[in-house]
Design a protein that fits this description.
Blueprint lengths: L2 H4 L1 H15 L2 E6 L4 E4 L16 H8 L3 E3 L20 E9 L2 E10 L2 H9 L1 H41 L3 E5 L5 E4 L1 H7 L14 H13 L3 E10 L2 E13 L5 E10 H12 L15 H14 L5 E4 L6 H11 L7 E5 L5 H9 E2 L12 E2 L1 H4 L4 E5 L6 H13 L1 E2 L8 E2 L3 E6 L3 H6 L5 H7 L2 E4 L10 H16 L5 E2 L1 H9 L5 H15 L4 E2 L6 H7 L12 H20 L5 H11 L3 H11 L5
Parallel strand pairs: 11-18, 11-19, 12-15, 15-18, 20-21
Antiparallel strand pairs: 1-2, 1-5, 3-4, 4-5, 6-7, 6-10, 8-9, 9-10, 13-14, 16-17
Helix pairs in contact: 2-5, 9-10, 16-18
Bound molecules: adenosine-5'-triphosphate.
């Protein structure tokens, strides 16, 4: 479709305007020889093609205006209509855009009166049609520029929405002019609630003001805050945007999510945060039993298999065992066998030699086994390892050597293996998904971490620890959770275990507006759970039982913090802090088996 045809409405308006001013008929024809707009005789011949070789076609080729005072003139000699043309005279003006003829404006005379107008007012008409052709030409150009701009904007929008970083553009008044999907997700906000409005998140606003006032970029500032009820933890870079004349036009904000950066660093290096046994919180007999056993086995170099539901703390235990072992000065390298695509897992674990496959790095790459040399290798989600790699892993454990992908000689490695799974490996063996011999190799020392619902005494100290941790991060001042909330915590089944509990505490703290956090801040699924409170749901615990549980947890935690094996002076000190008598302490110690911990 020609450019003139695309703007048919506008072209029709121009042709009507010319005709009404000049008392002549007008036809506007595009470069494909189609009549786009016309008045008079040609109005009912719109969208028809004019003859090849006619005056119009000649002007389109020659890009020069012609005046024929009496049709047929010289220019008509090749026209296929010959003497049948009804035109008596015409002026045909080309519409030229960037040296390309897009079409013509034709002023036509069909009778003697109109013919006289053309003859007598030729100069004036030429000037007028020239101006009209220029008007159409500039409008066509504007349309072209508009189309290009629209395309650039669309490409930009698509690019903005494919990047992982959050991007926000603000003008000099801090009004958000553009925001991508990643930024909306990080801020937990809908586009309509932020676009064309002032950037009002207080910490971000402060930094934006700084950049706009001083005109100097700001790099990777860490922000931990609550924005519209959602916790945000990001690194922010803000750069001023300069216009064509070097005037500041606003700023661009680049947000990188902390959790994503942490995950990338830990995935690439395999290095995890160091955990110690003191970080593993819990006062229940069950958790202390596992802890005590783990402390003992840390000293020997045997392979450990940690089992337990997701979020029970298997990775914490693996890290703590490493720190307590004679390998603590060596590396602790972790790999999640379920998170890495099967095709990459082998080279991630065992490394590869140069040229092992297309895309292999020059000089090859060491695998996690080699990186863990002299330390501990934590194989998380071992139950998801494909069978062919299980065979290779078994050989590495038995022979203490690994075969790199594309390698010709085995490489010696000195590594302690700790594996973990939330699957029942015996079931996997029965289904033929896990090698029995590997299972026995890994299961030298089995440690099972019980789910949180089986050790409710741990809930209170865990809630306390997480409250303190996130209270500081979120800069909130909270005393604690209401009895109703604690009661729900005790009765809920925690399918996501300690991880879920921590997430719930963090969520509730970010919403907290009072010192005691009530059930109104509970996340949806716990709120639903609480709607059964006293109704259809599980029965309420008697108040006395809640108090007893809280007292037991608080005392066990206090004794554990003081060091478990307390002498007389330490017990006296503890009683003073707890503001209870020695007799009361010993009575409760007996009741809750405090001193046998
Ligand atoms: N006893 C505990 N004391 C303090 N924090 C804990 C405890 N147990 C688990 N956590 C916390 O819960 C989260 C999950 O722990 P971890 O990753 O060790 O669990 P996991 O069993 O390895 O989970 P997955 O099977 O999903 O990998 C972590 O944030 C950890 O800090």
């Amino acid at each position: 479709m020609s450019n003139l045809l695309k703007m048919r409405n506008f072209i029709e308006q121009v042709s009507d305007a010319i005709a009404s001013v000049l008392e002549l008929d007008v036809v506007i024809t595009d470069k494909d020889l189609f009549r786009v707009a016309a008045t008079g005789m040609y109005r009912n011949r719109l969208s028809q093609r004019v003859n090849q070789g006619c005056a119009t076609a000649n002007v389109i080729i020659g890009k020069k205006c012609i005046v024929t005072a009496s049709v047929p003139g010289d220019i008509c000699q090749h026209c296929t209509r010959g003497g049948k043309c009804q035109e008596k005279a015409h002026i045909i003006q080309p519409i030229v855009v960037d040296d390309e003829c897009e079409g013509v404006i034709g002023l036509l005379a069909f009778d003697e009166r109109q013919k006289n107008i053309i003859i007598k007012q030729q100069e004036k008409l030429l000037l007028y049609t020239e101006k009209m052709a220029a008007l159409i030409s500039s409008t066509l150009k504007e349309q072209e520029i508009l189309k290009k701009n629209l395309l650039i904007t669309n490409k930009l929008k698509m690019t903005l929405n494919t990047v992982d970083e959050g991007l926000i553009y603000v003008d000099n008044k801090r009004i958000v002019t553009q925001i991508n999907e990643a930024a909306l997700e990080m801020l937990g906000i809908a586009e309509a609630a932020i676009l064309d409005r002032e950037m009002d998140e207080c910490r971000i606003k402060r930094y934006v003001c700084e950049v706009l006032n001083e005109g100097v970029a700001l790099d990777d500032r860490e922000i931990v805050d609550v924005y519209q009820g959602k916790k945000i933890h990001v690194f922010i870079t803000i750069k001023p945007i300069l216009g064509i004349d070097d005037q500041q036009e606003g700023a661009v904000l680049i947000l990188k999510e902390y959790a994503k950066i942490e995950k990338i660093v830990s995935n690439v290096t395999g290095i995890r945060k160091a955990y110690f046994f003191k970080d593993i919180i819990g006062v229940s007999e069950a958790i202390n039993e596992v802890k005590n056993k783990a402390i003992k086995v840390a000293k020997i170099d045997s392979t450990v298999l940690l089992t337990g539901e997701s979020g029970t703390g298997k990775e914490m235990f693996a890290g703590a065992i490493h720190q307590e072992s004679h390998r603590s000065t060596g590396p602790f390298i972790s790999i999640n066998c379920a998170a890495i695509p099967e095709t990459l897992l082998e080279s991630e674990l065992f490394g590869y030699e140069e040229g092992a496959f297309s895309g292999a790095k020059k000089g090859g790459k060491p695998g996690k086994f080699q990186l863990a040399h002299g330390g501990t290798l934590f194989l998380d989600e071992i139950g998801d390892m494909p069978l062919y790699l299980q065979t290779k892993l078994l050989r590495a454990i038995q022979e203490k050597t690994i075969d790199k992908v594309g390698g010709t000689r085995p490489v010696e490695v000195n590594v302690r293996i700790i594996a973990a799974t939330n699957k029942n490996l015996e079931d996997s063996i029965a289904k033929g998904e896990f090698r029995k011999d590997l299972f026995y190799r890994l299961n030298v020392i089995p440690l099972n971490i019980p789910p949180l619902r089986e050790r409710p005494e741990d809930i209170y100290p865990l809630v306390n620890i997480f409250k303190n941790k996130h209270e500081n991060l979120l800069k909130k001042n909270v005393i604690g959770f209401s009895n109703e909330v604690m009661n729900i915590f005790y009765r809920y089944s925690w399918p996501g275990n300690v991880r879920e509990l921590e997430n719930v505490v963090e969520y509730m703290l970010s919403l907290a507006s009072s010192e005691i956090i009530g059930s109104d801040s509970l996340p949806h699924k716990l709120k639903n759970f609480s709607s059964g409170y006293g109704g259809k749901g599980p029965a309420l615990l008697p108040l006395a039982e809640v108090i007893t549980k809280a007292e037991e947890s608080a005392l066990k935690e206090a004794v554990a913090c003081a060091g478990n094996h307390l002498n007389d002076k330490e017990i006296l000190d503890l009683c003073r802090q707890l503001k209870i008598s020695r007799a009361t302490f010993y009575r409760k110690a007996k009741k809750y088996h405090l001193l046998s911990l």
